[in-house]
Design brief:
Keywords: DNA-binding, Transcription, Transcription regulation. InterPro entries: LysR_HTH_N (IPR000847), LysR_subst-bd (IPR005119), WH-like_DNA-bd_sf (IPR036388), WH_DNA-bd_sf (IPR036390). This protein is α/β, with parallel strands linked by helices. It has twelve helices and 13 strands. Helix 1 packs across helix 2, helix 1 crosses helix 4 and helix 2 crosses helix 3. It starts with a helix and ends with a strand.
Amino acid sequence: MNVKSLEVFKTLAETLSFSKTAERCYLSPSAVTRVIQKLEESYEATFFERNNRNVSLTDAGQYMYYFSLKVLDANDELFALLHPDEDNLRGDIRLFCTVTASYVILPRIIEALNMRYPNVQLQLETGSMQNALNLVASNQMDAGISFIDEHKLDDNLRAHPVLITSMVLVVSKESDVQSIDQALAQYPFIMPIQFLNDNTIDKWLIGQKQSPRIYGEVDGNEAILSLVASGVGVSVLPRVVVEHNHLASKIKMLSIADITAVTVGIVMRKQSLKSPVKHKFWQLCQSLEILDCR
């Protein structure tokens, strides 16, 4: 077993794809297969269940995955100790964010990272912001871009703001409504699932003059904006999400005075910051100017 073999194993465990692993590790798919077979032979265990369509981790594979994370982190720490010059800093950062964040926030991080630490690589995964905190807390991701509330943040996590955005009521551009009262009176309200973990929107709806019909709960900004653009209903979303969506030209935004702006930040585990690579990444994110999208 060597570091390269563990890197190949970790990549396959995260992508569950031999072709993606081969591409990321600059190997052929057959070479990836040989690496995994040698590891399985060395440990006399099966790490992956595979057929013509799917690849999945076995229980032994899960143990091996967490082992590989520890060893690779320790290897990065050793390299940093042996080569204290920051220009030689190297390693991987597993970062989780939404598609919108990858448009708005990520380019600044990547640009700064490439300029300061060109040998530190980001392994990016996108998905619903609902999952970001859990993935970081469970060490499935090193960092996440998420809505943050310092008062509700897990004690094991640290967060640093990178963007502040106001919340807006979104209606179809074709609609003739000019006020929030009109919008809530004429259209059903689409509840955004990603904001149901707190009572902000519920409290705001209760405080309105109108008691709107509820269309239902919908996950994903793309789906919500598609429904709004089609005239199905109205909803509340962060301004930055709407402005950077391809449906922005079909959406009208109404300012909301009585919902406070939300903060988006980089979130990492306190424990992970003991790693020189992850600590430097954290410091780099802290050095970025906060984007104001209100």
